[in-house]
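About this split. The held-out portion is used to measure sequence recovery: a designer receives only the structure tokens and must propose an amino acid at every position. Recovery is the fraction of positions where the proposal matches the reference. Here is one held-out target exactly as it appears in the evaluation file.
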């Protein structure tokens, strides 16, 4: 086991952390939904119509370009609605659970790729370059698994794993047969992961040390022509469970955290459950709250009437400020105001004390100035500021030279938080990756 020490990055301390590891069981959801936007790179083509019955694990739709890629129903029930937006874009597929236990059983003696594609677990993995659902038939150079989440208020993945830990070894065995390289697992200090056949590395340092892409960049970077897969330890355990039992488990533990949560805790529910059921009696004032599926850096803003997004095991609820004006604005000397640059006096009391954050940006877009902010928040061997400029200008050659093949939007999330130019760096990176993929296709 090697130890990698990362100095770049920053741990944002927010109010609303979970104080104990108690797990609360949520009621059966009134509705469950699959949101196609959660699986970037997959263009949905429906296999089920409104009113049809589906079993847990039965395909709802497949990818238009790669028909073998399936997205499945997490529960047994009836397709209530295929909700569409502009240009008939599928916003959500809503299912009414029937409470039954009808589930698809898979023949795991077939080639692993076929089983993963059919089971729906394939779309839970990500491929670099481009940070998309992996392309079938492409054998990855290596596979990187992160066993911890370092984002603000992130859940302890050891708790989320629970008794699924016993399937990790089987998952590693399956993935080893799908790559010519190694399966790497990144853990934090004092974290025990029993994974025969995998190379386990310890990562010490602030966020984004828990990002699989950051771990890959510090072990074996992705170069042009390379393909690697990334995932978290929960997905690895699900793969192991599938090849042990023949079924996919869609149950999940969700960490409900944030300043607007009465008692932050872990909630046991099903993937895609409606948030009204998950958050029942948990939040103090939904009208004045911003609900985020995921963490405050990379999560997705949702309404209380929507659903838990499939890839996330975390819900953050922070104050939504509708009156942004405040006395003296940015020049205020309020001691509770936060800045990592010592702009305010908060740093005198240390930056490890939890503070209150709301949804305001507190500033407008400005021109990029070379300050080294991006590099200080990005523990990778790339020049972040130059790469962002290359993406904005559409210079593909520069993008390649500056390392775009090894990044994902989430790697720039912390730099976006620290950016005094207030640029939407994750959006810029996403557009750059999509443009590059289209050019290379």
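Reference sequence for scoring:
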């Amino acid at each position: 086991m090697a130890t990698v020490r990362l100095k770049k990055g920053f741990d944002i301390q927010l109010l609303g952390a979970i104080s104990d590891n108690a797990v609360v069981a949520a009621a059966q959801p009134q509705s469950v939904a699959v949101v196609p936007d959660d699986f970037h790179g997959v263009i949905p083509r429906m296999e089920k119509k409104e009113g049809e019955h589906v079993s847990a694990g039965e395909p709802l739709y497949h990818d238009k370009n790669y028909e073998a890629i399936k997205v499945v129903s997490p529960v047994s029930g009836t397709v209530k609605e295929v909700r569409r937006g502009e240009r008939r874009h599928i916003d959500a597929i809503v299912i009414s659970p029937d409470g039954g236990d009808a589930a698809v059983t898979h023949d795991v003696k077939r080639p692993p790729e076929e089983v993963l594609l059919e089971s729906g677990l394939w779309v839970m993995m990500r491929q670099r370059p481009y940070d998309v659902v992996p392309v079938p038939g492409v054998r990855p150079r290596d596979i990187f698994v992160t066993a911890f989440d370092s984002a603000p208020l992130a859940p302890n993945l050891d708790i989320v794993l629970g008794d699924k830990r016993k399937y990790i070894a089987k998952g590693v065995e399956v993935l080893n047969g799908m790559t010519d390289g190694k399966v790497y697992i990144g853990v934090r200090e004092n974290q025990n992961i029993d994974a025969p056949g995998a190379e386990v590395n310890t990562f010490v340092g602030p966020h984004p040390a828990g990002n699989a892409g950051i771990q890959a960049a510090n072990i074996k970077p992705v170069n042009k022509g390379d393909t690697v897969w990334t995932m978290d330890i929960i997905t690895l355990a699900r793969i192991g469970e599938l090849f042990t039992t023949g079924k996919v488990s869609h149950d999940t533990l969700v960490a409900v955290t944030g300043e607007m949560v009465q008692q932050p805790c872990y909630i046991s529910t099903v993937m895609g459950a409606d948030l009204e059921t998950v958050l029942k009696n948990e939040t103090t004032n939904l009208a004045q709250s911003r609900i985020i599926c995921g963490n405050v850096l990379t999560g997705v803003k949702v309404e209380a009437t929507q659903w838990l997004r499939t890839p996330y095991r975390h819900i953050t609820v922070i104050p939504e400020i509708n009156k942004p004006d405040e006395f003296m604005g940015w020049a205020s000397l309020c001691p509770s105001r936060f800045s990592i640059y010592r702009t305010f006096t908060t740093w005198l009391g240390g930056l490890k004390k939890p503070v209150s954050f709301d949804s305001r940006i507190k500033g407008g877009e400005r021109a990029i100035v070379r300050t080294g902010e991006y590099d200080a928040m990005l523990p990778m061997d790339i020049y972040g500021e130059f790469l962002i400029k290359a993406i904005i200008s559409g210079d593909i050659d520069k993008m390649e030279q500056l390392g775009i093949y090894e990044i994902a939007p989430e790697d720039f999330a912390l730099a976006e938080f620290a950016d005094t130019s207030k640029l939407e760096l994750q959006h810029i990176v996403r557009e750059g990756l999509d443009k590059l993929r289209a050019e290379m296709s």
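Annotator remark: Residues 29-245 form a domain with the Rossmann fold fold (CATH 3.40.50).
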